[in-house]
Design brief:
single chain; alpha/beta; TIM Barrel; Lyase, Ornithine Decarboxylase, Chain A, domain 1; eight-stranded parallel sheet; six-stranded antiparallel beta barrel; 18 strands; 26% helix; elongated; binds pyridoxal-5'-phosphate; Alanine racemase; EC 5.1.1.1; pyridoxal phosphate binding
Length: 355
């Protein structure tokens, strides 16, 4: 068996949820578990986060997986329904679609269902991805109020630059407040970044995703810096040790040339496992619990690490690619990406263990 494993610490998930709840204060917490629970396994994450007030997903399949775990929480479909055919199941499973287009309101008005459907109505406050502009949004709200099978209506929007301290949420928040002035509906605006930094944006439902998995949404900061615990620990072992002579090249393209005689470890982990191919030489790893760094190009099934300072490392030595002692944010930054992408790109071939 290949020694690579993604160890998922479910107690860390529960801890991070508590941090989110504490920050949220009176606001309720919708745990965002799309993309297979950010790569951690949807059913597992749902169970570990059952103390959340609700869940947010994208698809009916994901909602069904959560319901199959016995979770009776509110479940929000962040992109609503993709086809009117889905409305019957939405009603039956008591799911709450985000409505972001007028034709979704039309379809809901025409639907024949046995249960009331609670909905979120999305205002575009400046991200220009999903949502209606102010006028059609207000018109849609009037229409929804008149549909007998529509239950509670929550007003929702999403920030484009909450993770950029130089911009923040002030502009979009002002746009939202102006549009929603005088409307007596609950409000949901904040994902992790706004939950962490902008209490004035919390509203009634916050929607943390990445922070539940232990990572910070802010560049240059790690989850540990803000009291979060990493949930996914990507671990493997050395499957070979090489002595490379001064001046010799290493790996594909000989991207790394040994500046002196050195011992190099070969780790059973490559880009086909979800480790980023663009991680540069010097990306941090732990070998035998000691800090080390990657060397040269990451290949499909392997990568190389520096054993210069770890004389006792040998075939079978444990390696941490990310997790405790190796912040995933640092690995992501070394590859020109973000923790979200690494977590959600964990390959199906990697064994997952719960701890
Ligand atoms: C993914 C998503 C979130 C969670 O964002 P994080 O940055 O992971 O906290 C919240 N709201 C919406 C609409 C999303 O799509």
């Amino acid at each position: 068996m290949r020694p690579i494993v993604a160890r998922i610490d479910t107690a860390a998930l529960a801890h991070n949820l508590l941090v989110a709840k504490r920050l949220a204060g009176p606001a309720r917490v919708l745990a965002v578990v799309k993309a297979n629970g950010y790569g951690h396994g949807l059913a597992r994450v749902g169970r570990a986060l059952r103390a959340a007030d609700g869940f947010a997903v994208l698809s009916l399949d994901e909602a069904a997986t959560l319901r199959a775990q016995g979770l009776s929480h509110p479940i929000v479909l962040l992109e609503g329904f993709f086809h009117p055919d889905e409305i019957a199941e939405i009603a039956r499973r008591r799911l709450q679609p985000v409505l972001h287009r007028e034709d979704q309101v039309d379809a809901l008005a025409r639907a024949r269902v046995d249960h009331k459907i609670d909905v979120f109505l999305k205002l575009d406050t400046g991200m220009h991805r999903l949502g209606l502009a102010r006028k059609p949004w207000l018109a849609a709200l009037e229409r929804l109020r008149a549909i007998p099978h529509v239950g509670n209506i929550t007003l929702i929007s999403h920030f484009a630059q909450a993770d950029d301290p130089a911009v923040g949420v002030a502009g979009q928040l002002a746009t939202f407040k102006e549009a929603a002035q005088g409307l007596a509906h609950p409000v949901s605006l904040a994902a992790s970044a706004a939950l962490l930094r902008y209490p004035e944006s919390h509203g009634d439902w916050v929607r943390p995703g990445i922070m539940l998995y232990g990572a910070s949404p802010f560049a240059g900061e790690t989850g540990a810096d803000i009291g979060l615990l990493p949930v996914m620990h990507l671990e493997s072992k050395l499957i070979a040790v090489q002595n490379v002579r001064k001046g010799e090249g290493l790996g594909y393209g000989h991207l790394f040339t040994a500046p002196r005689d050195m011992r190099v470890g070969v780790v059973a982990c490559g880009y086909a496992d979800g480790y980023p191919r663009h991680a540069v030489t010097g990306t941090p790893v732990l070998v035998e619990g000691r800090p080390s760094r990657t060397l040269g190009r990451v290949s499909m099934d392997m990568l190389c690490v520096d054993l210069s300072e770890i004389g006792h490392a040998h075939v079978g030595s444990p390696v941490t690619l990310w997790g405790d002692g190796v912040p995933i944010e640092t690995v992501a930054a070394a590859a020109g990406t973000i923790s979200y992408e690494l977590l959600t790109a964990l390959a199906p071939r990697v064994r997952v263990e719960e701890s």
